[in-house]
Structure formats: C-alpha cells, structure tokens
C-alpha cells in the first residue's frame, strides 16, 4: 500500500524541488496528485492487497491476515456496551481509507495558499491574455494591485490593457510560460512602458514553491537551547533562534549602536 502511494508523492516532490518550476505549474502538479490519490481511494484496496500478497509470496512472508480488532465507541443511552468485531480485511480497508483521507486533507491545507497565489497571477499567462475580455483583465489587475500595493500600483490596469493587444505580436506561442513573457518584455524594451506588469511577473517567478523553514528551525533548536539554557523563556528562545538562523545578518550588525540604544532606553537618570 505504502509503495504505491509514496511513489506518487515522491515523484511530484522531486519535480517541486526543480529550480525552473513556477507556482502555477506546482499548483497543477499538486492538483493532479490529489486526483491520483482520489482515484486510488475510489478504486478500493483490492488491487493493492493483491500486489501485497504477491510480494509476500515472493519474499516468503505469510500473507494471511488473521488478526481481529474490537472497535470501541462511545456508548449512548439505551445501547449495549459490547464492541463491534471486524475482520482483518475490514480493518485493512479502514486503515487504507484513513491514510488516503488524511493525506489529501493535509495536502489541501498545506498548499491552499499556493493555489490562491497561482489564481491571483493566472490572468498574466499568455493564454489568459489572449482569451480573457479586457474588463475582466482590468478587474484582476486592480485586485492584484490592492493585494501587493507595496510593489504594484493601480497603473497596472492601463498597462494590462495595452499589453493584452501587444501579446500576440511579441508572443506567437500562446503556451509561453511566465518566464518567456518576462524575457519578451525585456527583449522588446517594454519595461519602461509596463513597469508594474514587469514587477508582477518578477514577483510571481521569485516566489518559492517549497520552503524548509520548519526543518531549518528544528536544526537550530539544539544549538540554541542547550542544557544550560533549559529555563529560557519562549520569547528569548524565538529571538535567539532568529539570530542563529540569520547569522550572516547578525554578524553585520554594529553592536555599539545597539548597546547605546539599549542604554538610552533603560536609563534611569532624572533630568532636572
């Protein structure tokens, strides 16, 4: 069971770690993986059970399941307290469904934000630029400018209207990627005409598909919280971990200025 499930996840995971993949491509791959897992769930576990029995026979392991399990559930008023006996096959089926349901729920929760970002920038694709009406493009551009107001202003609404009618001239291939569009903007020197549009593409292409922040934090935890610091508070532990993780920035800090600022804040001298 695990071999077939993890094989699908492993292949997608390798693709997500590629340096050339963008968020929209990653979102499509994850959706396809969810569809694959859903099909495995809908088809049942009979095929997987048959394959597992075949593998057991090849390596000389007993494939017969004789274990029974009693399901304990909360007893309501008027019910008997006896449990419900299920066979080993039924138990295997329940566990199979439980594993797949948990995986699909976790993937949906973890990659929900990724899908939302892909939807925000979807109107910038070559296909959308060629088939989406101008008014809808303006609405999508206005929403993007509001969401990323520190980098993109409302002028992108006029830029997207201009660029929509120029995209066929500079991009003969309607299946061009976001990187192809950005290169075309640079090639035809449209960066001065459509600066916000170029910024939007650069934001989209530089957003990371996967991160390792959790693993990075745990690897630094042992170095930060030693047995001599067992009584450290949560606030100080968090700040120490940040300093350790961002050690390159920490080394560039002028501690004389930090000490002077700290001394001025903590100063108790009375001014007359």
Describe this structure in words.
The chain has 272 residues and is mainly alpha-helical. The chain has helices at 2-16, 23-42, 46-59, 88-110, 112-120, 126-131, 134-147, 156-170, 178-187, 195-206, 213-224, 234-245, 247-251, 255-266; strands at residues 69-71, 84-86. Strands 1-2 form a two-stranded antiparallel ribbon. The protein is flat. The N and C termini lie far apart (79 Å). It comes from Macrosiphum euphorbiae (potato aphid). One of its GO terms (molecular function) is protein dimerization activity. Pfam families: Dimer_Tnp_hAT. This is HAT C-terminal dimerisation domain-containing protein.
Arithmetic mean pLDDT? 79
The beta-strand count equals: 2
How would you write the strand order of the largest sheet?
1-2
**Which structural class fits the helix and strand makeup?**
mainly alpha
Q: In terms of per-residue confidence, which ranges show pLDDT below 50 for 5 or more consecutive residues?
A: 79-83
Structural shape: flat
Radius of gyration: 28 Å
Number of helices: 14
Strand content: under 5%
């Amino acid at each position: 069971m695990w071999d077939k499930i993890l094989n699908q996840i492993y292949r997608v995971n390798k693709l997500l770690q590629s340096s050339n993949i963008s968020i929209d491509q990653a979102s499509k791959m994850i959706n396809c993986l969810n569809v694959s897992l859903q099909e495995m769930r809908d088809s049942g576990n009979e095929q997987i059970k048959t394959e597992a029995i075949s593998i057991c026979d090849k390596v000389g392991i007993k494939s017969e399941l004789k274990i029974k399990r009693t399901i304990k559930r909360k007893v309501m008023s008027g019910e008997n307290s006896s449990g419900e006996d299920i066979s080993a096959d039924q138990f295997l089926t329940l566990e199979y469904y439980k594993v797949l349901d948990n995986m699909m729920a976790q993937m949906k929760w973890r990659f929900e934000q990724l899908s939302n970002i892909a939807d925000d920038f979807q109107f910038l694709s070559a296909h959308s630029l060629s088939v989406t009406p101008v008014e809808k493009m303006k609405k999508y551009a206005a929403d993007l400018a509001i969401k990323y107001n520190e980098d993109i202003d409302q002028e992108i609404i006029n830029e997207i209207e201009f660029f929509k009618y120029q995209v066929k001239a500079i991009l003969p291939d309607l299946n061009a990627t976001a990187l192809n569009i950005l290169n075309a903007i640079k090639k035809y020197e449209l960066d001065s005409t459509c600066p916000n549009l170029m910024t939007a593409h650069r934001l989209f292409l530089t957003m990371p598909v996967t991160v390792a922040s959790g693993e990075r934090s745990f690897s630094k935890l042992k170095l930060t919280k030693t047995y001599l610091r067992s009584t450290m508070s949560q606030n100080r532990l968090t700040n120490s971990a940040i300093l350790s993780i961002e050690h390159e920035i920490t080394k560039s800090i002028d501690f004389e200025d930090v000490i002077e600022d700290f001394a001025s804040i903590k100063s108790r001298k009375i001014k007359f």
